[in-house]
Design brief:
signal, SPOR-like_sf, single chain, alpha+beta, Alpha-Beta Plaits
């Protein structure tokens, strides 16, 4: 280990303090220019998100099986029932096609009766919280 002389130690210490004094990376001000409509859109989105509770809706499962068959089933369903949304959910080992987002059981059962005419193994699902 090399020992510095007192004069070199003082010089090194002063140099370090001088360099450290000039470092001010966190002193920058950031100005963001954004469209005022962005704030309005963001507040509207927050209102909508608080009003939507996806766990309180009924869904109808129309298929459970392999990925390609699930994609085909969903595509066929969307062609026939274009007013009802649908999605594919993976639940090991099957892909499930879930359709609808019904707020009441009565509404879901009405649609279930209509969908049952086309798809045989369908049933109503109330997602758990």
């Amino acid at each position: 280990m090399r020992i510095l002389t007192p004069s070199k130690r003082v010089f090194l210490t002063l140099t370090m303090f001088t360099l450290a004094y000039n470092i001010n990376a966190q002193d920058q001000n950031l100005i963001v220019n954004q469209d005022p409509k962005f704030d309005q859109l963001l507040s509207e989105k927050r209102k909508i998100n608080t009003s939507i509770n996806t766990n309180d809706t009924y869904k109808i499962q129309i298929f459970s099986g392999k990925s390609e068959e699930a994609k085909k089933t969903l595509s066929d369903f969307k062609r026939e029932f274009n007013t009802i949304d649908g999605t594919i959910i993976f639940n090991t080992p099957n892909y499930k096609v879930m359709v609808g987002n019904f707020k009441t059981r009565i509404e879901a059962e009405r649609n279930l009766a209509e969908i049952k005419k086309r798809y045989k193994s369908v049933f109503l699902i109330k997602p758990s919280k």
